[in-house]
Structures
1.
Amino acid sequence: MPSHDTTEKSVAARFLHTEVSRLGAQPGLRSLPPGPERDFLTLTWGPIVYRTTYAPESHRLLPLFLRALNEAIQTALHRLPGSREEIHLLEKTYASKVFSAQDQYQDVGEDVIRQIFHNWKVSLALPSIELPVRLRLCWIVDDAVLASFAKQVDLAAKEGHDAHTSGCPIKVLEENFPDLHRRDSNPASETVAPMDRFVSRKRPRSPSPSPVSHPDGIPPPDDDSTDVKLAQLVSLFPETTQDLLLDILVASGGSVDRAASTLASQRICKSPTKRATPSTPAVQTSLAAHIHVLPPTPGTAAAPSPLKRQPLTRKGKTLHLFAPEDVAAHTPCTIIHNFLPAAQATALLRELLDESAHFARYRFQLFDRAVESPHSACVYVSTADEYRQHTSEYTYGGTYRSNVRQITPQMRRVSGAVQRAVNDEVRKRIRSHYPGGKKLRYQSPKEWMPNAAFVNCYDGPAESVGFHADELTYLGPRAIIGSLSLGVEREFRVRRVVADNADEGDEAGETSTRKNTQASSESRADAQGQISIHLPHNSLLVMHAEMQEEWKHAIVPAQTISPHPVSGNRRINITYRWYRDSLHPRNTPRCRCGMHAILRCAQRKRESRGRYMWMCYAGFAPGKKSCGFFQWAEFDDDGEPLWEKKQTEDRAPILRNFVDGSSEG
């Protein structure tokens, strides 16, 4: 008879205990060395995934598949009986681990993966315990799994609706070492038949040394409660209703393994009365299906005008873009995949991984509290004199920075290729996107020449940076940035900044105005929907001249990442920048507290949108207060400052172009 405390626990609470909290008390797990591995095993729950397909298309599909899988599981959690706090804790403790190494896992069979899974658990020195689900079952993503997923996505794109991926398969292997009660898996000597269903497993044998027969071959139920078993099935089959799961569990004699095999072999899933709408929009190979191009008017040479059938962004949803033509068409960016030769990209990555040991986290003040950036970074310049300038004259966020280093040999070596590519993309952008094929107002007509770089390190899926626009103080108006990504693939999110609506209407037209305002607000909310650009290893993203003034961007935390064979869980990002000579700190205004003012662009108010201003930024430095300094900034059409009084521009030093002295020139 269960105790009173046990009967009062909800399904969510029991699942937390079975799959997470009890593991921290296990002597073997508790004695593991402190670090991410122990935290992953004792503080989280979620699948172990092995990737065995490395076809070119898999690089695009795998992140989408994992995201759809995670979101389905997150959705299923809310169907579990339990308090809001318990469900929230389940969401917070969910984490998956993806093993991805082409030289080890490409096209290997199920028996090999089972052995690899077994060896991984052996390396952890796990004690003989009742294993949680994640240490008994590993998941496989192979060509067949991604092909089924791609079919669903492409079909949705063709029909113009969101992808319904709940019926997509996932392969699951069982390996029970060193479970205290299950001894049916001995991968070292067992021959596993080829998998003809997306879950393949054997029924657990009785731990008793004397075999016991059971009617219909159904093993007796184990000691887990029905609620815990049901929660385990929900985590494996999140799209199947609980009523159906319970019926199959009862029909299987209370055996989770037998119920899971039945569900898997029959591919049972919920049949909704109407098409289900997942939480993310469909992802297409190309967004051409959303664009209708009118033919040119006879007798004119005007270019066709693209007309959108529907807005591509929606409030609360993220539009994922992969194809370079879609990125260029719908964001202020262009992307170049496989930018550097593979060997050169690897050499640069290795060099900067070593450099990242010297990176630091930027500290700043927010609402009178000192906070720390959720990733580490460092500034790179060309010469020792520029190092001195950047630590004693240039300010960032209201303070001087000490983590400044001289450019590395590999960074300098690739800077020529970055400079050429960025300038080529800028010229294309002007011809194809800007009115009249002319540069934007305040955009510099000069060649873009990188002379400074911020290098960021994101160590693990949780490290990130929130939505922001880059500081324009030394870049000037309409700044262009070349961003080179190395290591783990991460999402680069962008969203448009839409100006607030001006007050309009009078009392007589209040009802009509209210309706118009509501429709306008909904349209503005859709326009500010997020767009995700996936940045794989060795990709160059060019942020064009409209980026900083009209958009904000972020690197968002990831629930799952595919480890890179060189960098592991780390992503290195080099943002090459061109600091204008005319905006050297010896020329820029100082505020009343004696600090260098920063340059910002007004974005929200319609009447001032697009105007630049010098402001005191000392309030963002820990322990300091702002003096409230404000001054409108004036620039000519090429973005050069129009100073109110004579500046010392002729005496200000000039930063050296990274390309000077590089082997590429």
2.
Amino acid sequence: MGIIWSQIFPPPPTLTEVNLPSQDGKVFIVTGGYSGVGFHICRILYRVGGTVYLAGRSEEKALEAIAKIKSLCTPTPPEGNIIFLPLSLDDLTSIKPAVKRFVAAESRLDVLFNNAGISSPPRGTSPQGHDLQFATNCLGPHLFTQLLLPILRHTAGATPVASVRVIWTASIVVDAFALETGIDLAELLQKDAEKSRNYLNTKIGNWFLADALANQIDKHHAP
């Protein structure tokens, strides 16, 4: 209960948009930047001079979010940049083209925010036949991250230790409702599985993917 309580009422943060230093020269990708946490991450990084790629499926929604971000803040000189990156995390065939497009435009990536996620969608499966929540929240972000590892490693080799990061947005539901055994893989294979249970499984999956990535990468050049 203590862990859950601390997430509902977290302690005051030590780093906020008020004291965040200039991010000039740094490059970020934020998935799910149309609204919520992702939107404000994009806004904060843009304001302090970062180059931000807002990755998502809908160009219309992305451009609306970008216009709103620019209207809300006066960037600290030098002005940042915010760019739409087409990406459909539920469709694995869209991942590699998005990565190719990004690396053709940029020579570095400082932070990847795996923030996008869905909960209880009306449609049941992805184009590849996976549970839609599992595909969007786990499979797509995992492939996206793996394909971006070369540029993350390259950036890490030329920057201070631990300044390059991959961040996964998790959920309080993991602490509140997770099984002691973790993910029940059988539930993900059931076509009539309860959507709320599958959402929980995908958020546990985010924890596992973050841990697996930490074990995978070189600890001396860790994104």
3.
Amino acid sequence: MEQQQVRGRRRRNGVLQVQDGSEIRSLVENKEAFTRFVDDRFQKLDADGDGRLSVRELQPAVADIGAAIGLPARGSSPQADHIYAEVLNEFTQGKQDSVSKPEFQRVLSDILLGMAAGLKRDPIVILRINGEDLNEFVESPRYEPEAMAIFSQVGVGVGVGSDNNATPKLRQCLLAALGQLTVDHGMPPASDSWVMENVVEPALQELSANQLDQPVSQEVFFQEFRKFLGIMALRLQQHPVIVAHTENTFDGSGIRRLLSNKFELDKLLDSVWRDVPKEHKDKTSKEYLRIALDRIADSASLPPFGAVDQVDAVVNEAFKMAKADEMKAVDEAEFKKLLTEILGAIMLQLDGNPIGVSTNTVVHEPMSTSSALLSPTPLSPMVSSPSE
């Protein structure tokens, strides 16, 4: 199904690039090229030139890795900060205050291969939105029923205020309606500031200013929304927008595959148990179950905690059912048993109520960061910003 959707977008929107992780894997597996890559990055990060990277010198690398996997900036949320801390811990193993070049290369290799595996499972499609699909939607039989459904949603929502009986204004309805359109309609994210300033607002200015501030009926909305979208389609022809599109469905099938493979499951459980901090008599706190789940999330086809709110809610419920957030110390057998039960609970929830996630992000410039750890590399699509 997903491949059909990608092929459909290739036929309609211009697909500039599909990031499926193959280039990243090729880089890592080419030992000579990867060694040169690591030498260059290590030298840029090693500010004092002592041949080791301190925790402070590693911070730009951690920030770059977070950005590459789609995390918000550090400090923006506790969940994201937790993942950043885990990435840093991968380098330092929670004990060292600095790492050597071989250690840096080993961990970076593991992280990049993990990213490649994630992209293979959930590729990023770089689309060029040029107005053709939007114009096709406006002229198609789809327009009226979808516009009617959109008006029934936004026409009521935007009219709620101090006067609950107030009829919404046309301007409010048009802007709210854009939030209901996606790249499948040929519309880039209207919430993006560049799209708003260069596509949406100029299109609004071509409509009657007087009518925009008047109460709107369904008939007027149909007519003006069609005109509004047509103007934006012309704007997009003149100023195409580059959008990074991803979609995924979390249905528990990845967990089911993992739980059915006892050898792989036992290997993962052994690995996470070795890495969690131990208390006396080879026991650890239940609080480390969340860290352990994050470590095996990719193998279970789950997103990192904090990346998808709906999945986070399912995970939190599973932990609540297992009473896994208690600070009680448990031994190895109990720890592994609880982690397996949590996976099973998440699987059942997702199997009954799959969670579909789609993201569309406008790409304004090459995805690079201050330290340039991951740029220019296959992780950073070098695409042009929308033309002014």
